[in-house]
Amino acid sequence: MSSLFDVRKQLAFYGAYHSHPVNIWIHIFGVPAILWSAFVLSTRLPRPAFLPPIQYVFNDYMIFETNAPFVTAIIYMVYYFILDPVAAFLYAPQMTLSLLTATAYAYRPDGIRNAVIVQVVSWVSQFIGHGFAEGRAPALLDNIVGAVVLAPFFVHLEILFHVGYRPELQRQLKNDVGVEIARIRREKAEKRRAEKKTS
After folding, report:
1. Alpha-carbon distance 105 to 118, whole Å?
2. For residues 39 and 99, is the Cβ–Cβ distance under 8 A?
C-alpha cells in the first residue's frame, strides 16, 4: 500500500511501459486529450449528492461546476500532491484549464459527439504507440487504475524533466525503469520456457 504513494515506484511502473521516445511523444499529446474528453463525457453523470449545485460561468469557453469531473480532478490532484508537491503545483493550472474548458465544451450541441471522437482517436494512437514503438501491451492491461490515474502526471513530469526539473529524480527513474523492463522481460522469457515445456 505504501508503494502507492512512492513517486519513484509508481513512475517506474508506468515508465517501464513508456520508454520509447515515439511512444512518449504520442502520450504527451494523447493523454491530455483523453483526460479532457473524459471530462466532457462525464459531465453527463449525475452531480454527486454531497456537493451543492454551484455553477460559475467565466465566459463561453470556461465554466466551473460542482460535477463529476470536478470530483475526479480533486482526487487526481490530491494524489499528485502526495507524489510530488512541486510538480503537482505546476500541473494545477493545466488541470484547472482542462476542467473548465471541458465543462463549457459539453454544453455545445456537438460537444459529446466530438469528445467521443477525441477519445477514439487518442486511444487508437496510444495502442499504436505501444504496438509499434514499445512492442508490448499498454500498462492499463496490467494495472488499469494505476495507468489511467498516473498517465497525466507522467507526461507532465516528462515535460518538466526536459526543462531541467529534478535531474536527480530523472536519473533515478531512468535506472528504475531499466531495472523494471529487465524484470518484465525476464518474467516473459521464463513464461515462454514454461509454456514450451508443457507443450
Report:
1. 13
2. yes
pLDDT tens over the chain, length 199 residues: 557 778 888 888 778 778 788 888 888 999 999 999 999 999 999 999 999 999 999 999 999 999 999 999 999 999 999 999 999 999 999 999 999 999 999 999 999 999 999 999 999 998 888 888 777 666 665 667 667 888 899 899 989 999 999 999 989 988 988 888 888 778 777 877 787 777 6
Cell of 83: 507524489
| Whole-prediction pTM | 0.85
Q: What is the DSSP string of 34-80?
A: HHHHHHHHHTTSPPPTTS---EEEEETTEEEESSHHHHHHHHHHHHH
